[in-house]
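Most newcomers find our protein records easier to grasp once they have seen one. A learned vocabulary of local backbone shapes supplies the integers on the structure line. Here is such a record, shown just as it appears in the course material:
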Amino acid sequence: MAKHGKQYEDAAKQIEEDRAYFPEDAIALLKKVTFAKFDETLELHARLGIDPRQADQIVRSNVVLPHGTGKPVRVLVFAAGEAERVARDAGADHVGVDDLVAQIQGGWLEFDAAVAMADQMGKVGGLGRILGRRGLMPNPRSGTVVRNPEDLPAVVRELKGGRVEFRNDRTGNVHITIGRKSFGDDQVRDNLYATVDALVRAKPSGVKGIYCRTLTLTSTMGPGVPLDVNVTLANASSAA
């Protein structure tokens, strides 16, 4: 097991063993136990009651965070013709098709989200091995494959404004960015509830029994703060 430094150990001592915190208390405590000098990313970690080996139990969706992620998002759009003009006007950082495909094949990945017009997926599909492992591959289920150019501005705005995609890993866990340490408590709370609500809505029909087994708030360097699952789910539902 990896050994933690003294700052981490001191921070972890502030979290009561075997206690699950109400969301407001967890957020306040999380701010106290983040010790890095930079503006740490805050995340929600969820352990789900799914079998990730079953195709009908894959969790994959997205959430538009009310207060964004606190990080500028560079959006790339695979589009040509009129759709290319619309994407540029919408504020996309990189727009094109053949030139971008070639750059990505050469190792260039200076973007945070990718969108593709449906008529360009024939060219983009070959990038699956590169973009898929990084969660950057355009996908109809996540709303990043667009059929009509007039729909592009809304997608680009959402991505730049704080839309976060999430998917379970091979152990059935989900890790979702919900903000930064510099956010106010109310901003973290709003983003947390929006994320939990999206996670619940993404529950696969094949899942039986308890879906959200544990929910934990954590930061880039700090220890995790366990949430009271039932209270968090109820608050997220009423806030939606």
